[in-house]
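Sample A.
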Amino acid sequence: MKYFKQIKRFVSKSYSSGSLAGADIKGLDLTEQVENIFPYESIPGPTPLPVLGNTWRFIPYIGDFQIEHIDKVARRLYEQYGKIVKIEGLLGRPDMIFLFDPYEIEKVFRREDAMPYRPSMPSLNFYKHVYRKDFFGKMGGVISVHGENWQKFRSKVNQIMLQPKSAKMYAPAISKASQEFVERIRHLRNKESEMPDDFLNEIHKWSLESLARIALDVRLGCMDRHPSQDTQQLIDAINTFFINVPILELKIPFWRLYSTPTFKEYIDALDTIKNICLKYIEKAMRNLQTEDGDSQNSILRKVLHVEKDPKVATVLALDMFLVGIDTTSNAVASILYQLAIHPKKQEKLHQEVERVLDSQQTIETDALEAMSYLKACIKETMRLYPVVIGNGRQTTSDCVIRGYRVPKGVQIIFQHYVISNEEEYFAKSCEFLPERWLKGFFSKEHHPFASLPFGFGKRMCLGKRFAELEIQMLIAKIIQNYRIEYHHQRLNYFIHPMYTPNGPLRLRFVNKN
């Protein structure tokens, strides 16, 4: 009963105050001159059923919206209804509008105010602001937090996280972790030089190790022959968190009435992430006091230097671990797979790496800047297969989008995966063409809002600079040392929990020399 009352108070307060609502996007202000404004009810979309609305579509066996194949669902909606689609009647959450128009998406982003709201995760909101309120208090970090609390926290860490020179300072630590992974590959190979079925999990370890060194200047030893139990427990907990988010948010929200098995598993995963991270954060704090190691370079140290508040540094580190591991590692997995199945593109990248790096083991950031084809390969993979297939905002005032009146409280979902795979916005959109990102290759440039793997605006990915540097460094080192091959049936992509190849990554890493 106590749990039910907590949930009821939390949901009621959040939606009435707008803290679960998204951005005051002002898509087109209603004061602007817009001809033929159509009513909200006329926005096309699937018809809801009585009582169950459109939520039934996400129910296994009877529904036609499979969460792990939301990419295909989004494309089907686009093909059936057009560039704006309404999904109404979702139990326990606002209506959603899928937007497939980069020009309208740009208008939304350009008009967002100082405190934009993203469609939040009520389950994570509940964890931070009710279930573990004793720990987070009003300082919930940057994920699933909105309004003044978000703005205050974000303003404290923006300068440290988003300046290009900030990420470059961590190049030696990132390079060392990447070199360790290159060596780890040698030990993972079987007699055919092929990776084991759980190779993605090994990439998770590299991502976790890199992030720990950046955030805390702590070596976790994730790529040792016998890593600590904390490594795998943390990776498993993060995977559990992401896998359960769409289940809790899109299916019938029974968790708001009682603690369902899925919700309990979700809460346990978040507690595991928090407890393991705190263990290493406390170790990093002790290192700061004793000046053990080179901890003056950690983000933890920089935040403490600016803010003098351990809680700010701790909550930021927790958020970084929560969303900075799976996203980066799945991006790397996808890039390696695409290079393996496109050997001519891989050879072109190899030639660039050889030309810029020669035989040097240590990669400087200046060298990475000179590798335009490397960055093009990464961008092209993220265009075709973005690890997060959509972004969004939620209205807190009436607005007009594509000529339709959209009321306050509606979630606007930007379907970047569908847009970035459309011929209208990218010529030869189905082909893996890194060259399209090189100046002068295509006469017609793509719309800048047609592919946004890191989002845009005030709520763009806070770890963008670090993720880009980590990915570029690792791919360059791997291409410097190996030729990547793939000799199995082509893999489809699915959501699990990121947009990733569906099947074991049995990549073959053949020594260059």
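Sample B.
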Amino acid sequence: MKTGLAVLAAAILTAVAVVPAVPAVAAEVPASAHATTARGATPTPSPSAAPTSAPTQAPTPAPTSTASPSTAPQAPAGDPGIAEMNAARNHTMGSTIPSSDPASGTAAKSQFKASLGVTGVLGMDVSGWQTGINWPSQYAAGARFVYIKASEGTDYTSSQFSTQYSGSYSAGLIRGAYHFATPNTTNGATQARYFVANGGGWSPDGRTLPPLLDIEYDPYTATDHTNSCWGLSTVDMSNWIYDFVSTVQNLTGVRPAIYSTANWWNTCTGSNNTFGAYPVFVARYGTSTPGALPASWVNWTMWQYADAGTFAGDQDIFNGTQTQLTQFALGAQNHPPIGSYDTATLNSGSSFSVSGWAFDQTNLAAPVQVQVTWNTPSGVTQTTVTANQSRPDVASVYPAVGNYHGFTAQVPWSGNGQYGACITVIALPGDSAGNASLGCKTSFFSPASATVPSSQRLAGTDRFDTAVQISQHAFPNPGVPVAYVASGMNFPDALSAAAAAGAQKGPVLLAGTSTVPAGTIAELNRLQPAKIVVIGGTAAIDSSAYAQLAALNRPLQRIGGADRFETSRLVASYAFPSATSAYVATGSSFADALTAAPVAAKKGVPLLLVDGSGMDPATASYLAARPFRAVTLIGGTSVIAQAWADSATSSGITATRIGGATRFDTSAALVAAGFANNSASSAYVASGYAWQDALVAGAAAGATSQPLMLANTSCIPRAIGDQFVRLGTSSYEIAGGTSVLSSDVDTFAVCY
């Protein structure tokens, strides 16, 4: 369990886009020493810090190119030391990190990383200390976003903000504003209003990042580690932050991001784990990954990994692709609930139970609701439970989450067959990412199989190769009595051939119109059939393809009529000359007849294709000229009209009908009519929507007296699962690749 959680945690903390390697640059000139300056009771605004309004946004320019990062630093100026920042009441994002954060070391300047252990989109953050930035060169060097300092406390706004905000926009960067918090001067709401009024706004244009709160060590006292938390208790600090971010959200309509370090956050908020709804911009230098995150988060949105390098200001990376960065700028919160669906356990005669764990990333402390959709022999129902049970293994991987996020649920036993459960984690109110599916699991029990039946997939590179794979599986030894070859381009001829081939213990292989694939030729050489029968006229398999088959020097015969209906009658006469009954299916579609082929082969009767609107004279003449006493119509009256059955009855032929509400119900009914209880330990399963694989599987199933049952694209219908119980089936062969029957069919997933 712990290993699986660790893997999931690693996956969550891995970004999803590949970016060029981050190049190394020359060492920076050391900044002036970080001096500790005592702070006065009433801050005095810097004379140059006149308030500025958010710039008017121009139409979005189209970037001229997407460049890899340059190896030449583009920063026009570095940050001054803490003493100078303190004197100006103007601090940059991360200015207190090198000297105060244990995880980032104590060096005055960290160096640009030669490479990062994560991938994403590169960017930067700048302040009024960076003047004269050449924004086109920043874009050319690889920067795609920038956070720009707008304000600090309630007494400073950057004189460079308007120029930087519009200049970066014109160069093609996605930009946003940040506020350096001074929690000991005013409450959070007051600073939030000041920030929004002085550049911290937002618009959903895909080019404006959500506003950002920069909250870090007190630069006036943190360097001697006596007051890193601005004189506030952990409760007061948590309240201050909530006051700020909720006010910004109310004013702008988007959740702001929060910039901090794990050390500051956990120290100054008491490891508060309720702020996950707000994206985190984490700071950590000197490492290849962001490392441990602040307590509220299990995933990071941005990471400030160095305070100098290629770009002006600090060096940042977004955890995602360029498209996801745009979505983030549009206000998308890509952090839905997460969890694990651990077990689905069926206890025969007792219960079906599930277990797992889940939490919502927007508030790690809050328990979430988990919805379980049950699918059992008694029907489909839903249960909602709270994920609040003890799971210490979850806490060991996500310490901030705590022990109590596990869940279990169960329903009573309701008989043999399929038991399925799908689990959805319900997002907490306000989590715009929405609910999260943890997937579905299926269990199974029958007297023949206490677990889901085992499966083997028979699939090739295309329909022709799949036919070869099925032939090799069903006929492992050479010397078969016959091999049928039909067109792989359309279904009617192969449909007629399937019952005949199965009855005569041979395969159906597929050919193109004018050529026979090399794999088909090789399989015919391996099989060494006593005879090869080509089904269809020259429009289906022309003389060129026929000549390839003749070159094999086996007895060769073509059976083909003027249309699909005549061809089916000719095949019936050839393979079943003395039959007294027949299966009848529409020639305009294939679904109903797919399962009928092996049933017809098992009974030694032909499969006739007809125009289901009414009995045509040619079919009437064919039936009258032979000793037919009964026909079984496949499908409802919408495919073979009652008038057709009435015509058969009036000519002295008993007409019965096998059909269901869906093609899968019809398939189950055909198998029920053709195979006795506990008579098939193995079966074939093929797509109910793709005829190519099902038809060749029908011949193989007929030759080995196995049923063929139809599946949906990604699940086994309950009607089919019930036949597995009745037949005593414990294994099955899947005909076709995952493009026609997904891997869920391998696990016997029940359809909802």
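B remarks: The first helix runs from residue 2 to 12. The chain has 23 helices and 29 strands.
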